[in-house]
Structures are given as structure tokens and as C-alpha cells.
Write a structure and sequence with these properties.
Layout lengths: L32 H21 L5 H10 L4 E2 H8 L3 H13 L3 E5 L7 E5 L1 H16 L10 H16 L4
Antiparallel strand pairs: 1-3, 2-3
Helix pairs in contact: 3-4
Keywords: DNA-binding
Protein name: DNA-binding transcriptional regulator, MarR family
GO biological process, one term: response to stress
């Protein structure tokens, strides 16, 4: 159970934070912006995770494929770009490899390194995920101007994470 939402948007004690199934179930117009962002993030993330899972992907795998779109990278470089440990990246690459989304090989210039390359199946999965994000009415396709919305989110994150002197 996700949790019971009361008319004021509060969550019943002991329940997990609520995510309404339908906007008309709760008076979201009265919610503060922070709560709207939080609920929207959870709803979109869950639906996107379901979409990815139906294609044998995870969110971590999607991010990894994104970083491989421009060409092969070392496993270490991917870990840094994805901001995860080498062990976590190793598991992600193993999952992507089993699903046919990437291939691994020994780096020709340094045999101690593993090079990872996206496959045609991986490119198709990445393209489908990007389309789903932009065009699906259940994800961000419901936003009138996707690029403007994206830029606003980037600005919000940058402002919220900048160090204040």
C-alpha cells in the first residue's frame, strides 16, 4: 500500500508517503510547491522504472547507456560519470551485458582496463526511453514545453545545490 491521502494532502500516520493514483483524488491545488515536486518526482520515477523494467533495463542502466552513446568508455570512467562505485558500475554493466545492451572487451591500450561499448539493441533501448520520457502522457509528455521545463529543473537544482557564501 502506498499510503492513505487525506483531503489536505497529509498522509495517515504509519503509512508510506502517499502518491495519489489520480489527481482528482486530492486537492493538489492547495499543496506547497515542494510537495508538488516531491510527489511528481515519485510518480514519474515509478512509471519510468516500470517502463525500463519492461525492456530489461534499470535507471542505472539507462544512465550508463546515455554515457556510452558517444562511444566506448572504460568501466572506471563510467563509474565516475555515473557517480557510483566501481563495484556498483560492475554490476550495472554485467546486467546490461546479459541483456544485450552493451559488450565488454579488454582495452587494447591497457589490458588491465575493461572497455564498454553500447550495442544496437542498447541504442534502440536508449532511444525508446528518451522518447517515452518526452512524449508519453504518463511521464513528461504532459508538460507543454519539455525543453523549457527541463531547463527550469536544471536551474532549480543548480540554485538549490550551489554553495552560498
Amino acid at each position: 500500500m502506498i499510503g492513505r491521502v487525506w483531503d489536505d494532502g497529509a498522509v495517515a500516520e504509519g503509512d508510506e508517503p502517499a502518491v495519489p493514483d489520480r489527481p482528482d483524488q486530492v486537492d493538489v491545488d492547495s499543496w506547497p510547491t515542494g510537495r508538488l515536486l516531491s510527489v511528481a518526482a515519485r510518480v514519474v520515477e515509478k512509471r519510468f522504472e516500470d517502463f525500463l523494467a519492461s525492456r530489461g533495463l534499470t535507471h542505472a542502466g539507462m544512465i550508463t547507456l546515455h554515457h556510452l552513446a558517444d562511444g566506448p568508455r572504460s568501466q572506471r570512467e563510467l563509474a565516475v560519470l555515473c557517480r557510483v562505485t566501481d563495484q556498483t558500475m560492475s554490476r550495472t554493466i554485467e546486467h546490461l551485458d546479459r541483456g544485450g545492451h552493451v559488450v565488454r572487451s579488454q582495452d587494447q591500450q591497457d589490458r588491465r582496463r575493461t572497455s564498454v561499448k553500447i550495442t544496437p539493441a542498447g541504442r534502440r533501448a536508449l532511444a525508446a526511453a528518451r522518447r517515452e520520457e518526452r512524449e508519453s502522457d504518463t511521464l513528461l509528455g504532459a508538460v507543454d514545453d519539455y525543453e523549457h521545463f527541463r531547463q527550469q529543473l536544471i536551474a532549480l537544482i543548480a540554485a538549490a545545490t550551489s554553495t552560498r557564501d
